[in-house]
Each structure stands twice: as C-alpha cells, then as structure tokens.
Amino acid sequence: MNMQGILEGSLPIISTDIKKIVIDAPLGQGFEGTISLQNNGDGLLEGSISTGGQILVFEPEYFQGNKCDIKYKLNLGYCKIGDTIRTEAIISSNGGEHVIEFKINVVSHSLGTGDKEREKLDSLEEFYSLWLTNPSEAKKIFLKHDFLMWLYSLDYEYLELYEHFRSDPNKERGINNFLVFNRLKNRVNLAIVSEDIEVRVNPFIPESYEGSFRVRRQGIGFVDEKLIQKLGAPWLKLEKLNILSTDFKDDDEIEIGFSIDRNQVVKKIEHETLMLTNSSGKINFKVCKVGFLNLKLDKSFLGLRETGKLTIENNTDSHLTIEIVSRDSFIRFDKEKLTVNRKEVVEFSVKLSTLQLAQKSIRKKPVFETVVRIKSIYRDKKYFEDLTITVGDFK
Q: For residue range 216-254, what is the model confidence (pLDDT) as tens digits?
C-alpha cells in the first residue's frame, strides 16, 4: 500500500454497489463475471480480494487504481447438479473493506443448437429429437467438446463410450451407435422382401438375363450392410454389394438389380442364396439352363385310336433341321423330318398291327411302351432326346 499517501493526505474510499451475487452455473460450462471497484476518496486505491474456498478464482487478486475491474471464474469440478454453494468474496484495501456474498446454484448444462426452433437442449431425448429433424446439425454438436461437457453436466456415466463413438472414423455410424446404445432408437434392420427367383436361361442368346429384387429398411439411421452369396456362383452378378443409408434417401425400400451370365451357367440346374451380413432375410435363385430344344408331348398315354401332338421349340439363333425317329412302327408322325425356326407342332397317331393287337389281348400288362428319338445338329454339336409314349386300351 502507498503509506505516504495515507500519512500525508485524505484516504481513498472503496465503493461498489455489489453486495450479493446469485449465479445459476451450468456444470461443465465455464462461467465468468466481473466485480467493479471505484475510489470515491483521494489518493490511490490499493488492495486484494480473497475467498475462503476454491470455488471462486479472482484475476487479479491484487489491484491498484481508482477504477478496477476484477474478473472471477467458478471452479465447480467437485460439484454436482442441484448443489447450492454459499461463499464470500472479501475485499481488503486502503479504502476500507467490503464483503460480497455469493450464492451459486449448480444447474445442468444447456447445449446450444444453432437451430431456431430448438435453441438449446436439456436432455438426451431432446438431442434425439434434434437428430430426427436436423441430423446434420445434431452431428456437428455431437462432435464438439462442448457435447462432452454437456454429458458431464447430466451426470452421464458412459463418457468413455461416448469418446469411443465420437472417434469412429465414420461419423454417421458413431452417432447412430451412440443413440442405439442409449436406447433412444432401435438399430436399423434390412430385409430382402422379394420372393425367390427362378429363371430359365438360354445359353444360345448372348445377352445376360437381367432382373431385380427389393430390400426394405426398418427404422431410421445408419445403414452399412453387405450382400453375400452363400455358394459364390460366378453366374450371378449384383448391381451393388454394399447397401448404405444414402441408397434409401426418403424411401424405406430400394430395388437392387442383378444379371445372370448365361455363359457361366454350367449345370442344367444351378442354385444360389443371397443373404445380408447383419440382418435377416434371404432370397434363393434357381437357374434352369435350357437345351437346343424344348420338347413337350400333349399326352404321354394314348388309347388305341388316339392322336397326339409334339411341340418343338427352337432355343438357338439358327434354323434347325429336326429328325424324328420312332423305335416302333405303330407310332407314326405326320412329319419325320422338318426345319424349325422358333416353334413347330407335329401330330402323330397310333396304328397297331393285327399281330400287335393279338399280343395285347394275351399279355398280363396290356400296354405297349415305345421310345421316340428327336435328333438335331447345332454348330457341329449333335443333340438327341428320347421321349417315352405308352399305348393301351385306356378307359
């Protein structure tokens, strides 16, 4: 202190209109204030400010000047929400003493949002509501250090897990897992909702078969799933392997295209099952590889005076010469040799000889079975297929 000023002239007189300060201090959020002092006397005002505990921190603790602003901060490290702390700031100076009473109410931290409709958040439920309406703003807040302080003020017990979610390289996944962990939302599930697919592929047509199936989303939030093939069939090609949140946009269902490479289908019948990595649901593919020809009898059991029809479909890209060879003479075709472009129907009839009719009457099994062979050649490759026809006295 300036002792010369005290001895030689009038003394300073400390003046402040602050007698009591009441603060609602959010836990985990810094709080600052100012105490203004003024000298209403003569000379130079000098002194110090102190408190009995560690709740208040003053800067500066020592002051000098006829108009001084002393800043104070709160140290609430050992407090919890709902605490009420009473303490005093004692000012000692050459202009007298002054005591300021402090009442500090420790309240929860209110988190600012930047959203005009929802300016602050007071609970995790309100944060989830913000995420539903403004996910990009919620993600920004989630990544700030202020969010950690806000959780601390809420007495949140899983701060380390929050740090783990926050540090996830995929930020959308991190905030989604945080919300799921805190039971604010359910995990998003996907399901393949299309029926099983059966395809007849023609190896003589160069183009691949193309189709699609549907995947449905259940819930809102992060999606990152992979489609996997159980058998790894090379003939099945998918439009996409990974399904992401952005694929759904505003819809809860998407279509995923697929193609079947006819040249990769080796067996007459091939199977494959498509599944999701993390969700339920699957779709089965059955691929039937057609041959050069499709053959179909309108009936394989004929009476003694019946006629029938053989339908021949050509699956190739060329005209085919077809030869029909009956093992037995009692089956007679209208045409035994013909050219088929796409489809032809050939009629045939039954005509048993007198000897065959006599044999039929004394046989324990009064029917005749015969085989008809259909033959053709496509690009130097021979083709044949046998069809069985049964003839009898059917009533």
A: 998 888 999 999 999 999 999 999 999 998 898 778 899
Q: Which of 162, 181, 200 marks a domain boundary?
A: 181
SS3 labels along 153-221: HCCCCCHHHHHHHHCCCCHHHHHHHHHHHCCCCCCCEEEECCCCEEEEECCCCCCCEEEEEEEEEECCC
Assigned domain for 4 exists: no
Cross-strand bridge partners of residue 209: 260
- 94 and 22 co-located in one domain: yes
| Upper half-sphere CA count for residue 103 (Cβ side, 13 Å) | 4
The count of domains in the chain is 4
For residue 322, the enclosing domain spans 293-392
Q: How far apart are CA 34 and CA 31, in angstroms?
A: 11
| The pLDDT of residue 290 | 82
pLDDT digits over 149-201, tens only? 788 777 788 999 999 999 999 999 999 999 999 999 988 889 998 899 999 88
In a domain, 256, yes or no: yes
321 with 378, same domain: the answer is: yes
